[in-house]
């Protein structure tokens, strides 16, 4: 991992144990990695309101993570109304349905069908967050690409995609650096998650990172006054993943990364994330 301010998992655990006793119930707190101190979400909210893109990592299907983001959005709203939420769980091709949901033209059951097609299980976990966005007029953005494409990349590599499949992707390259491979190994070990090779697995992850970044930036380009929150799997939210793709495409766009947890034995630096959720319920 890059050198910098290192916060070992053990140190973080001791810190959290010492501070959770003073965290009031119902008040979300985060660990400020740079300052190594607890910060309440209401204190952080004005800064978040000034940022272009906020990456929020989640453990898929974890209601606590979705509630944490809802708490963050609730805290930011008094400071800024122009918010949007990009979602890994929905494909970019489902944008019309997401717009219809926010406009009240598609109900929860209709959105559940879209979710099942684009993602699969877990709609009940994220539904309160989606309802919160609908009720407060926060646009939802589909960030993902067809699952068949990433499955093919994981099995056969990026170069196996045909021209029709490439048209389903935003403009991107799929160069995997040794540093990116090291990053994924540091988080996931050598688990390929169904891929026939670690290189192909890295390519699939990189295409996801790049697609989320490109689709979030497209929305921000059309809505430059907005702050776009991106809810994605925790691995994609780390700075070497999707945020690095955002920086590569738009270096001037300000970013903040919020992680939901630390993997067992992990060490984290300010080059990897900015804040970690502190939640005694986890």
Instruction: Enumerate the strands of the largest sheet in spatial order, edge to edge or round the barrel.
Output: 3-2-10-8-4-7-5-6
- What gyration radius follows from the Cα positions, in whole Å? 18 Å
β-strand amount: 15-25%
Number of helices: 12
Which descriptor suits the 3D outline?
globular
Classify the oligomer. single chain
- End-to-end distance: 26 Å
Give the structural class.
alpha/beta
- How many strand units? 10
The share of residues in helices is 40-55%
**SSE order in H/E notation?**
EHEEHEHEHHHEHHHHEHHEEE
Largest sheet: 8 strands, mixed
Which segments are poorly predicted (pLDDT under 50) over 5 or more consecutive residues? 1-25
Describe the structure.
- The chain is α/β, with parallel strands linked by helices.
- Helix content is 46%, strand content 17%.
- It has helices at 9-20, 41-49, 63-76, 95-102, 108-118, 123-135, 147-156, 163-166, 178-188, 198-222, 234-237, 242-249; strands at 7-8, 29-32, 37-40, 53-58, 83-91, 140-144, 227-233, 255-259, 267-268, 275-278.
- It has an eight-stranded mixed beta sheet, sandwiched between helices. It has a two-stranded antiparallel ribbon with strand order 1-9.
- β2 and β3 (37-40) form a beta hairpin.
- The longest helix has 25 residues, at 198-222.
- The model is unreliable at 1-25 (pLDDT under 50).
